[in-house]
Amino acid sequence: MDFSDPDAPHGNGTDNHSGHSEPAQTAAGHYRELHNFARAKTGDTILAEDLVQETYLRAVNGSTGELRNMRAFLFHILNNLVTDHFRRLRRTRERFSEHEAPDIAADYHGAEEQLIARQRLQILQDAIDELPSRCRECFILRRFENLSHAEIAARMNITKSAVEKHLAAATVHCTKRMRERE
After folding, report:
1. I want to staple 131 with a disulfide (CB 3.0 to 4.6 A). Which of 13, 18, 78, 136 is the partner?
2. pLDDT (0 to 100) of residue 10
3. Within 10 Å of residue 106's Cβ, how many Cβ atoms?
């Protein structure tokens, strides 16, 4: 797939897509609808953005050979992610009473795990450095400065749609690089 120009138009977002369509192009056309669905289910705008991006990644990396309805496929993935999120929350609450919060800082990681984490971080840094400048800036503002799509659009003087496309392209690129080097 070519993600070199995330500002380019990507189809009309219709629902009938054959297996020859690019899932990334179609997914971008449904972003707002997916985001609204996730936000309504979770009540959290930031979590909704993350779940939609994960939906996008799974759609891009999944098998869409005989797929006829990309919109339904995306909503199916997103609904499963929302369900999984709430299951994890429930399990965490069951494991830890209100008085026993998990102390993440106290977790011990062996030397090997630390080395692996550093290597993965370097791979991610290299992947981010490979991104086109606007795409990289958008990705950093979202993932490291935790700005919303609207805040990024205002800061970069671009549309929210362009932000979504930049983030999708950056996420796919970084995921691809991580998988290539693992």
Report:
1. 136
2. 39
3. 6
